[in-house]
Design goal:
Elements (H helix, E strand, L loop, with lengths): L4 H9 E3 L7 E4 L3 E5 H13 L9 E5 L9 H17 L2 E3 L6 H8 L6 E4 L13 E4 L2 H8 L4 E4 L2 E8 L8 H12 L7 E6 L8 H9 L8 E3 L4 H9 L19 E6 L6 E3 L7 E3 L10 E4 L7 H11 L9 E4 L4 H10 L1 H8 L2 E2 L19 E4 L15 E4 L2 H10 L27 E2 L31 E8 L6 H4 L13 H4 L11 H8 L2 E4 L12 H8 L2 E6 L4 H9 L3 E5 L13 E4 L2 H7 L2 E6 L5 E5 L4 H8 L3 H8 L2
Parallel strand pairs: 3-4, 3-6, 4-5, 6-7, 9-10, 9-12, 10-11, 15-16, 15-18, 16-17, 18-19, 21-22, 22-23, 23-24
Antiparallel strand pairs: 1-2, 2-8, 5-20, 13-14, 21-25, 24-27, 25-26, 26-27
Helix pairs in contact: 2-3, 2-5, 6-7, 9-11, 9-12, 18-19
């Protein structure tokens, strides 16, 4: 039997384990990336492990999240990352150079290589047939030090694309259709591979839009083949020598398949407050719109920007609409100026934001109270925009642009023929905003500069034989890392200051949580299905650790968040019978006798609710390696114990 794309890349990077779905495997990592909201912690962890020089083929530190400098905190973090990168052999992409995933696709992505990044949308690189995976910062630090990255061998979902997209229908509509069919949990434990004759009709930027939002399915990653379209993209970037053809074998077998006829798709929108709450735009037509945001790592390529500029040319944004445009990289920004497309955007009334994540993470440009915001982004979780009662819809650049002009939700298929866009044959190449590291000879003399906002990393605690603690918080299904550790302009500057950050933990769900957790000293959280979905931010584990959370019991966990909990010594337990969650209430006194012994060798442990008398069996779903980490109180402790 032949191999799929993922199986071929995994085979070439396999360090331990076998390629049987569900078995833990270890992978050699070729490249890493970080961004500044997670990077400070990743590099503090790298320093804590005593790594002098990174051992990957390439590691890049990007600044693209905390770029709103309303105080010293963000600027201090940027300075720290710049100096620590210079000292340890890491390239530094300066503020303003662009969004990490867009820049990495343009300048560094290589078909067939492995990449992990401390950002959940690292699978964007799958548009180039690169196995990009989101990970916690500690896992990235370990990989930079030459360590192995561990995942569960995924099942492979084959997505067969047939036909060709109709006018006004875009790559965003492809991934929204997949989300509509599979849901936000449909990709957990899986890689999505796209194949079929429809694939060759899609450019690399279009493919990257699809793989980027594969993260919203909970997928390990998503992949397209490396073919002639891949070669064309790399040639435009002056990197054709990085290209090689990679296709699945003709007799490759998928664990599941679904077929999408591209010609049958229509413009779609993800409605509040989940990326899988998808409806046709035609059903929403006429709804008044307050704000439109175009950009983010999902839809900020040159192709997207030229399309938007062509739609807006000679028109003016409706008086009731505020429009922002964020080019994905400085390369795109400069080329928009060279082609005159930037003038079209400005003349139409667009507010041009810097090449950064910006509104997508609530870093500025929040909607008005109760506002309806159309965004070409990848997430529309409640309050993520910075306005708690905003209604955020995820749409394609085409829908966003025509709606900005109309002032209402508009189905572009009613707008006549779409404009034709032609990409330049060669792209503007200028990497002067990417700083190389110091030479190995000069590196030891580089001073790493730390500001007063950078605080020590919380360290996990080895589990006691019996855990006795109150149930501090009980939450429902699909709790995101935005619920656990919110983002936004007011909070993100404290990403390197866990004590300050703890004041905001879970406040979206319960404003009293931080204070109650501190008073309790130790606590347990109970959650529903898909607990921890969304971003890779390890702060969603670090901050609960600081607040004394020792275990989280849920119906199921999102992949990256479960790994982050384990890395920091918080024990993730699952209900054997999901209905048992209903038997527990906030404030109950919970007890887990034989807790440490169960972590060491058990498959189940019994939870005793001393308030109600209930006895509930729980599952410990860990590999031998994960048990070692938990028994040590976290990966940093284990690393120090072994002097790695």
């Amino acid at each position: 039997m032949g191999l799929t794309l993922a199986q071929k890349i995994i085979r070439d990077h396999l360090v331990s384990g076998t390629m049987r779905p569900g078995e833990e495997i270890g992978l050699r990592i070729d490249q890493t990336l970080t961004q500044d909201a997670t990077g400070t912690m990743a590099y503090l962890q790298l320093e804590a492990m005593g790594i002098e020089q990174v051992k990957t083929e390439l590691s890049v530190a990007y600044v693209d999240h905390n770029t709103l400098q309303a105080g010293f905190e963000n600027a201090d973090d940027h300075r720290y990352i710049r100096t620590v990168a210079a000292r340890h052999g890491i390239r530094f992409s300066r503020p303003g150079n662009g969004i990490c995933h867009q820049v990495h696709l343009e300048r560094f992505g290589v078909p067939g290589k492995t990449l992990i990044g401390s950002d959940s949308h690292t699978p964007t690189a799958g548009g180039l047939c690169m196995m990009g995976m989101g990970a916690g910062g500690l896992d990235v630090a370990v990989a930079m030090g030459g360590g192995t990255y561990y995942i569960t061998m995924p099942r492979i979902i084959g997505v067969r694309l047939t036909g060709r997209l109709a006018p006004w229908v875009s790559a965003k509509d492809i991934i929204l259709e997949v989300l509509r069919r599979l849901g936000v949990k449909g990709g957990v434990g899986a890689v999505l591979e796209y194949y079929g004759d429809g694939v060759e009709t899609l450019s690399v930027p279009q493919r990257a839009t699809v793989t980027n939002m594969g993260a919203e399915l909970g997928a390990t990653t998503s992949l397209f083949p490396s073919d002639e379209r891949t070669r064309e993209f790399l040639a435009r970037e002056g990197r054709e020598n990085a290209w090689r053809e990679i296709r699945p074998d003709a007799d490759a077998a998928y664990d599941e398949t679904l077929t999408i006829d591209l010609s049958a798709l229509v413009p779609l929108a993800a409605c509040p407050h989940s990326p899988d709450n998808v409806r046709p735009v035609s059903e929403l037509a006429g709804m008044p719109v307050d704000q439109v945001c175009i950009g983010s790592c999902t839809n900020s390529s040159m192709q997207d920007m030229l399309t938007v500029a062509a739609i807006l040319r000679g028109k003016t944004v409706a008086p009731n609409v505020s429009l922002s445009v964020s080019p994905g990289s400085r390369q795109v920004y400069a080329m928009l100026a060279q082609t005159g497309a930037l003038t079209d955007l400005i003349a139409a009334g667009a507010r041009i934001l810097e090449c950064a994540c910006g509104p997508c993470i609530g870093m500025g440009f929040s909607p008005n109270s109760g506002g309806i915001s159309l965004r070409t982004f990848n997430r529309n979780f409640e309050a993520r925009s910075g306005t708690k009662d905003a209604q955020v819809y995820l749409v394609s650049p085409e829908v966003a642009a025509v709606s900005a002009v109309a002032g209402v939700f508009c189905d572009p298929t009613t707008c006549g023929a779409p404009p034709r866009v032609t990409l330049p044959q060669t792209f503007d190449l200028d990497d002067n905003m990417i700083l190389p590291p110091a030479s190995p000879e000069e590196a030891p003399s580089v001073e790493v500069l730390r500001g007063p906002n950078i605080k020590p990393i919380p360290v996990g605690v080895a589990p006691a034989e019996t855990l006795a603690a109150p149930l501090i918080l009980k939450v429902g299904d699909n709790i995101t890392t935005d619920h656990i550790m919110p983002a936004g302009a007011k909070i993100l500057p404290y990403r390197s200051n866990v004590p300050k950050l703890s004041e905001y933990c879970f406040t979206v769900c319960d404003p009293t949580f931080p204070e109650r957790a501190k008073r309790a000293g130790e606590g347990i959280i109970v959650g529903g299905a898909n607990y921890g979905q969304g971003s890779s931010r390890e702060h969603a584990a670090l901050v609960p650790l600081y607040l004394g959370i020792r275990a989280v019991i849920a119906k199921s966990f999102a992949r990256i968040h479960k790994a982050n909990l384990i890395n920091f010594g918080i024990v993730p337990l699952t209900f054997i019978d999901p209905a048992d969650a209903d038997r527990l209430a906030e404030g109950d006194a919970l007890r887990l006798p034989g807790f440490r012994r169960a972590i060491a060798e058990g498959e189940t442990v019994t939870l005793y609710d001393d308030t109600t008398g209930a006895e509930i069996p729980l599952r410990l779903d860990f590999t031998a390696r994960e048990r070692e980490i938990l028994l040590a109180g976290g990966l940093l402790n284990l690393t120090k114990e072994r002097n790695l």
